[in-house]
Amino acid sequence: MRSEFTGKRILVTGAGKGIGRAIATMFSDEGAQVVALSRTDADLALLHEETGAEIHTIDLADPTAIARLLAGIAPIDHLVNNAGIAMLAPFSETTLAQFELVMAVNLRAPFLIAQAVTREWIGRCHPGAIVNISSIASLWGTPNHFAYGASKAALDSMTMTMANELGPHGIRTNSINPVVTMTPMAEHAWSDPGKAEPIRTRIPLRRFARPDEIASVVRFLLSDAASMVNGVILPVDGGFRAA
Length: 243
Hints:
It is a single chain. By secondary structure, this protein is an alpha/beta fold. The chain is 44% helix and 14% strand. The chain has eight helices and seven strands; from the N terminus they run βαβαβαβαβαβαααβ. It has a seven-stranded parallel β-sheet with strand order 3-2-1-4-5-6-7, sandwiched between helices. β4, α4 and β5 form a beta-alpha-beta unit. α3 runs parallel beside α4 and α4 packs parallel to α5.
């Protein structure tokens, strides 16, 4: 199927599972050349087998590995910073090592990747689009998610700064803030019915999100239909924040 994304190179981090896999599969189905990053070889191998995506195994907590990889994958047309980790602990019990690792993957890696990509875009006058996958946890004080929520709130702030500074170059940057989405990471975090049910019942739609529902919003924000959408922090939460 031809679409406006046919032939475009779209970099997707955390593409091996969950939301990232749904995003990578969706754009591959539309004829894009997906450049997929993940830390798990087996996940990437399966994605390549199913979609033909260009795959790269990388630890996004390693800034040297990021710099080395980005030096060899240009040009990129659009970027989806999806990769993220959560290390669940009460605020008073969160360790410095946990905090620093979450920040390294959820904030530092998107910063380094977006910085390298947009420098290349500015150099060739390319009006690319970026979507940062944040979380409703950046907008709501989620218990046991201190480091995760803080990293995502910082990512939202980075999104707005990027939108302001890069907009004059024709580069758009937006964040998506999903409610609990049924990925392997979410299943680990929300496997206890006693914990999950109060959140689910607060959502007016009375369910958690699916990865494909987040992917479809990414598609919109990267598309020409969103050509005037820049600097938006967009909850995709089934009405959670309205309840």
